[in-house]
Inverse folding.
């Protein structure tokens, strides 16, 4: 992978990085941070679901484990937030490997894999809601102590840049998947697992690598969520909302593409906010729109927004050549 | 240890709850058996049906058991339309797409209900909600008994429909061999939609049986849907007797784990069973197909 491969990606990241310095309001910045956190979770989903074709309906399992890992270390053991961040990534990858090992060894795929991941997330939610060290139903409150060493920032723009940094890493990682041998193996598993196996791809190992990477990225998103709102409980951390958000964004944005999850999250939440503004305070309307976007994307734009954009560009250049 | 009467009562209560579960699972497994799709919108469709029953009661004082007459056909029509004009065309026949389209539908339905009714919890005030029937030393809730009996009747009717009518034969033909069915002149898209409609009609029955004893809010269908998935997987995807037995079994497991571990952990037993069955016996206890 050369610099030229990632030039558009770096440019997009740079454009996003200057946004908070263009005088956007506090609520807008809040909104952008929330969208980036969702986008990061979605980038994680896209590694396994988009490139690997294994549709998880339970990425909350990884999001929540990341959030709880850092919160428990800080609140119960008094460790630092940066250690918590590292622990989130490791715990996320381990949870991913465990779920992946059990499900892939059992040969689960398609809807069976979707169901088993959903069930794992629910089990974790119930346990976290009942256990003592997770704060039970009351949840965990991380103490407010602004400072770089605590991963808390008095200036929200700095937190925005931190999240964007991780989104950037995930973006470059996804780009690497588009170009690397590992990524090619993963796509081969998605397209035809038997054929990939016959050609000598160790499909179990490839899938395990993908779920570990995917889970770690989503766990990182969970950690940042906990770090930003300084509070989590089981229904937020392991709730179905994040499992759904994590798969919506890539599918609408462009499944199995590097840009897909980020573009999808921005587009969906942009439309969602617009709906809220137009419809007033009714709860749920933005999600109605999300569901509609999901069905429309599957019906008319199987490669999402990225696919639509590529089609438009192609037809335009074709028209030019024709002339 | 608990005294025998409590254990016995937990068993019977579990069986009665399980019967309702079984009816929910019946619709799900029928759709799976014929269309080979996992219908994620099943829970949201149940919520719709429950709101229909609630609406009938709140607006015109329609008794939930009388509401069977309008609600069941309405739910059938809804299911037929959704499969024929939304799920079918939108999914281009790919399994993963169907899964996602039904997920999208459930998001839409659940949140549209949330937008209209807010998240308030609603109940029906009937004068028989707390009636009990004495059976020996035990007191059994009348609405629950009616629910269990109705489940058996509906299962019987469904069996008759599938085995003794032309539509039933067509449904089974499509389930066995789609292409062959098409070749002998069966309209597969129509049969798919009919099957889906029957599945949602079952939910209409469930809603009428549930409303006297349960509450409704935009998320209440979700409470049942994971349980229903568990039952379907446990009983073997697509197996009607499996759904019935699986439902009863899960009802009993839930009842006993709530007794021993408390309500919050009661559901844990169900999900652990779900995961274990998926991992080690994905064809289910009674299913032949993998």
């Amino acid at each position: 992978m050369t610099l030229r491969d990632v030039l558009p990606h770096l440019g997009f990241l740079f454009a996003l990085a200057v946004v908070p310095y263009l005088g956007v309001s506090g609520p807008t910045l809040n909104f952008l941070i929330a969208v980036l956190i969702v986008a990061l979770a979605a980038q994680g989903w896209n590694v396994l679901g988009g490139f690997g074709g294994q549709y998880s309906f339970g990425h909350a399992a990884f999001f929540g484990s990341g959030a709880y890992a850092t919160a428990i270390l800080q609140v119960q053991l008094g460790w630092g937030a940066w250690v918590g961040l590292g622990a989130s990534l490791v715990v996320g990858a381990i949870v991913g490997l465990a779920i992946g090992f059990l499900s892939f060894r059992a040969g689960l795929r398609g809807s069976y894999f979707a169901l088993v991941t959903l069930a794992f997330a629910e089990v974790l939610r119930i346990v976290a809601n009942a256990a003592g060290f997770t704060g039970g139903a009351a949840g965990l409150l991380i103490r407010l102590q602004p400072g770089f060493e605590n991963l808390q920032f008095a200036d929200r723009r700095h937190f925005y840049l931190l999240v964007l940094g991780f989104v950037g890493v995930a973006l470059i990682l996804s780009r690497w998947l588009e170009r690397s041998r590992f990524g090619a193996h993963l796509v081969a598993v998605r397209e035809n697992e038997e054929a990939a196996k016959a050609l000598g791809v160790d499909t179990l190992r490839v899938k395990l690598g993908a779920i570990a990477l995917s889970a770690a990225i989503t766990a990182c998103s969970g950690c940042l969520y906990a770090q930003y709102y300084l509070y989590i409980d089981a229904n937020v951390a392991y709730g179905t909302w994040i499992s759904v958000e994590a798969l919506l964004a890539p599918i609408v944005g462009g499944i199995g593409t590097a840009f897909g999850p980020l573009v999808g999250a921005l587009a969906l939440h942009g439309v969602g906010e617009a709906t809220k503004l137009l419809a007033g305070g009714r709860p749920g309307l933005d999600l109605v729109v999300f569901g509609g976007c999901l069905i429309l994307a599957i019906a008319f734009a199987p490669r999402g927004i990225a696919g639509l954009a590529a089609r438009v560009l192609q037809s335009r250049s074709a028209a030019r050549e024709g002339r | 240890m608990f005294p025998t009467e409590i254990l016995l009562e937990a068993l019977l209560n579990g069986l009665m709850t399980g019967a309702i579960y079984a009816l929910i699972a019946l619709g799900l497994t029928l759709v799976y058996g014929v269309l080979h799709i996992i219908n994620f919108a099943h829970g949201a469709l149940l919520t719709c049906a429950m709101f229909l029953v609630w609406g009938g009661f709140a607006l015109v004082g329609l008794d939930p058991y009388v509401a069977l007459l309008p609600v069941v056909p309405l739910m059938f029509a809804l299911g037929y339309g959704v499969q024929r004009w939304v799920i079918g065309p939108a999914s281009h026949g790919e399994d993963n797409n169907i899964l996602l389209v039904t997920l999208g539908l459930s998001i839409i339905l659940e949140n549209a209900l949330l937008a209209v009714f807010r998240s308030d919890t609603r109940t029906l005030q009937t004068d028989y909600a707390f009636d009990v029937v004495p059976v020996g030393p035990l007191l059994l809730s009348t609405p629950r008994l009616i629910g269990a009996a109705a489940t058996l009747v509906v299962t019987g009717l469904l069996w008759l429909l599938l085995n003794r009518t032309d539509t039933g034969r067509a449904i089974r033909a499509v389930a066995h061999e789609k292409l062959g069915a098409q070749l002998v002149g069966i309209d597969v898209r129509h049969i798919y939609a009919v099957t889906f409609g029957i599945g949602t009609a079952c939910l209409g029955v469930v809603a009428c049986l549930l409303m006297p004893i349960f509450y409704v809010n935009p998320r209440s269908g979700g409470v049942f849907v994971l349980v229903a998935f568990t039952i379907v997987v446990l009983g073997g995807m697509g197996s009607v007797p499996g759904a019935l037995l699986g439902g009863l079994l899960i009802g009993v497991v839930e009842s006993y784990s709530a007794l021993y571990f408390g309500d919050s952990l009661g559901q844990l037993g169900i999900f652990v069973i779900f995961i274990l069955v998926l991992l080690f016996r994905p064809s289910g206890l009674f299913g032949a197909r993998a």
User: Anything to note?
Assistant: The beta strands of chain A are 140-141, 231-232. Chain A touches chain B at residues 53, 55, 57, 102-103, 106-108, 110-112, 114-116, 118-120, 122-123, 126-127, 129-130, 244, 247, 251, 279, 282-285, 287-288, 290-292, 294-295, 298-299, 302 (CB under 8 Å). Residues 86 and 322 of chain A are 54 Å apart (CA to CA). Residues 3-239 of chain A form one domain.
